[in-house]
Amino acid sequence: MQKFTTIFIVFFHIASFCFGQSFQLGADYYPEHFPIENVSRDAQLMKAGGLNIVRMGDFAWFNMQPDNHTYTLDWLVKTVDTLGKYQMKSLLCTPTAAIPKWMFDQYPDIMQVTETGQRKPYGKRRHACLNNESYRQYSLKISEQLATTFANNPNVEGFQIDNELMAEDPYCYCETCRQKFASWLKEKYKTLETLNKTWGLAFWSENLTDFNQVFLPRKGDNPGCFVDYQEFYSDCTIDYFNLQRNAIKKIAPRLKVTHNICSSGFIYKLDMYKLARNCDFLSIDNYPYTWTLENEYAPVDNFDFHPAMASMALSQIRGASKKPFWVTEQQISRTAGKQRKMIEPGMVRLWCHQGLAHGAESILFFPYRTFEYAHEQMMNGVLDADNIPRRRYEEVKQTSSELSKIKALLGNAFPVAKAAVLRDFKCDWAFEDGRVSSDFRYMRHIYAYYRALREQGITTDIVSPTDNLSAYPLVLVPAQILVTPELCAQLKKAAENGSTIVITCMTGLRNPSMKSFGRLLNKGIESLAGIEMEEQFALIKQENTAIDFPSHSINQGYTGSLWYDHFKPLSAEVLATYQSRFLKGKPAVVKNRVGKGAVYYIGTVPSDSMINELVHDFIANAHISPLAKCANKLVDITELKDKKSYMYAINFSQEDQPIELSTPMKDIFTNKTAKAVTVKAMDVLVLEKE
User: Fold this and answer.
1) Catalytic residue from among 157, 164, 432, 688
2) Active site (annotated) includes residue 294
3) Is 0.70 topped by the overall pTM?
4) What averages of pLDDT result for each successive group of 10 residues across the chain (690 residues)?
5) Spatial CB neighbours of 679, under 8 Å, sequence gap ≥ 6
6) Residue 632 belongs to a domain with what CATH number?
7) Is 329 tagged catalytic?
8) Which residue out of 231, 294, 296, 329 is catalytically annotated?
9) Residue after which a domain boundary falls, among 605, 622, 639
10) Listed residues 411, 442, 469: the one ending a domain
11) Residues whose CB falls within 8 Å of the CB of residue 582, separated by 6 or more in sequence, listed in order
C-alpha cells in the first residue's frame, strides 16, 4: 500500500473513533491443546500482530464435559478473560461436531447409520445422528452451560453453533430418522393419496397404504422421494441448530449466534436461506485454493485459480442474509486437504481484502498455530508449532493495518449489485441423482455466468427465487429446473417493468415435488421466452454441438453441450442457431420482448467463450455499466455504496493492471482524482466516486 501522509493518519484516528472498532481480524484458537499459562503470551503476540478476536471451543467437548455429570469450563473462562485483558474478543463455539468417547460408549446408537444399514464406528467428526434424542439432550445441556457461564462476560461476542453442519456424509438411515421423515411427510402432504400421487408411486408398484411404511430413499431411488429426503435432512439440521440457538438466546439474548458454512460456502445439502433466518449473521469458511465448488461434486486436479470462484461464495453468503457476514475460517497456508496450488506471499492478504469488499465484517484465520498432532497436523497456522513469528505473521499484521484503515474510511459501505443470479438449493437436490443430465452440475452452470459477469466488472448478487427480483436491471435464471407459479409471476413482473431476464435450459421442467407439468416445459416459462418447446435432448459431456452466433463477428468455435432444446420461436427473435447434427439451423438462443424489458432463452449449456459474448449482450440490453473494468480476469472489482459510491479493485496477478473507469474517481488514500488508473501487482486500489 502507498504511504500515508500525517494528515491522513490524523483523519484515520478520527474516523476510527467515529466508526468504533473498524474491522475485526482474528484467528481460530485452541487453548485446550496446551498449558493455560501460554494464553497470556499468545495474547500479546496476537495483539502485536494486529489481531483482535479469536474463535474457540469448536472441538473441545471432552475438555468442557469430561463425563456424563461434570462440566469443566473454568479453563475457558480463564482463557476468555486473559485474552480480554489484551482487548481480544471471543466468539465461542458449541463443541457438538465431535462427541467424546465416553458418550459413544454409553450410547452407541448415537452414531449415524449408513444407507446400507451399517452403524458408523467412532473416530471421526460429524458422525452422530442429529435426530438421536441422547445426542440432542447432551447438545442442549452443553449449550445451556456455555450460555449461563458467559451470559454476562463482556469479552464474548457470541456463539458459533456446532461446526460445518452437513459436511462429510450428512445423511442418516436409522429408524429414528425414518420415523421423523414419515412425520415430516405427513405434515407436508396430509394424506397418503396426495403422497402417492405426488411421488408417482404407482410406478414400480411402490404405493404406500400407511405412513409407517415410509422408507428412507437413496440416490437413484424415486426422484420425488429423494428430493423430499434431502429437504427433510436440511430441515433436521436447521432444527438441530435451533435447538442450541434457542437455548443460548433464552439464557443470554444479547449474545449473537452464527454458523460457519463449510466447503467455502459451496455446500449444497444445507439450505442457507432457511438457516439465515435464524442467524444474527452468517459465516463462511473460506479456502479459495483447497475447497471450491468442485469439491462438492468431485475434486479435480486441474485447478486454475480465478478470483470469481471466491467472489461467488462470498456473494452467496451475503445474498442469503442481505447483511454483513463473518469469515470464521480463512485459509492462511496449506491445509489438511489436497494441495492444488502453493499460496504465494501476499495472496492471503488479497483474500482478506476480497472478503471486506464483499461485505465481511470479521475475518479469522484457521488456525492461529499449526497443530502438533492428530487429523489436521499438516494445516499451517498464522504461527508454526514452534510459536515463532515469521512471514505469515507479518503478512497478517500488514493486512490488519490495511483493512482497519480502509474500513474506517468506507464506514458502512456495502456491495451494491446491478445483476442477480438465482441459486436454489432445491434445484441442486433435484439434479443430484444425475437423471436429468448425467454430467451436468448445477453450481458449475451458475458459476459460468457469474464468472462472466464479474469479468465485466459487474457486481452480482446470488439470490433466492423468493427474493424481490424487480430491484435488479439484470436477472439470470440458470437451470431453474423447479419452478412455481409465484416465480413465473415474479419474472414476468420484473421483465414488464424493464428488467432483462435470462433463462437457461432445464428451467421449468418440474414442479417443486419433481413432478412434470404434463408438458415439455412449464407454460409460464414458454410464454416468457416466446417459444414452443418441441423436443429435448441430453448427452454426456464428451459430445458437443457447434453454434453460430452471427451478431458477434469473431466466432471462437462456440459450442453447446450436455442439453439441447429444440423449440419453435413464436414471438422471440433468433440470436444463435445450432450448426451441426440434425439440429443444424435450429434456434439455440432467442430474445423475446416482454413489456418494457426482454427475456433471453438459452437452449443449451454454452462454452465459456460463448457465455462471455452472451453476457456482453445481456449487460448492454439491461443498460447497465460498471464503475470500472479491467481486461485481466485476475482483477476482482466490486462496487460498494453507503452515502457515497466506491470501487474496490484487487489485483491477483503478478503484473500491474490498467483499470478503465466510467467516471473520474478519487483514490481514498491520496485524494488524487483520475479517469484511468493502474492497480499494482498483488495489490489493491480503493476509489471514491466524485
Assistant:
1) 164
2) no
3) yes
4) 37 38 89 95 97 98 97 98 98 98 97 96 94 98 98 98 94 98 98 96 94 94 95 98 98 98 91 97 94 76 87 96 96 80 94 98 96 77 94 98 96 96 96 90 96 98 96 97 97 98 98 93 98 94 88 77 97 96 95 98 96 97 96 98 96 97 95 95 96
5) 630, 635, 649, 650, 651, 656, 657, 659, 685
6) 2.60.40.1180
7) yes
8) 329
9) 622
10) 411
11) none
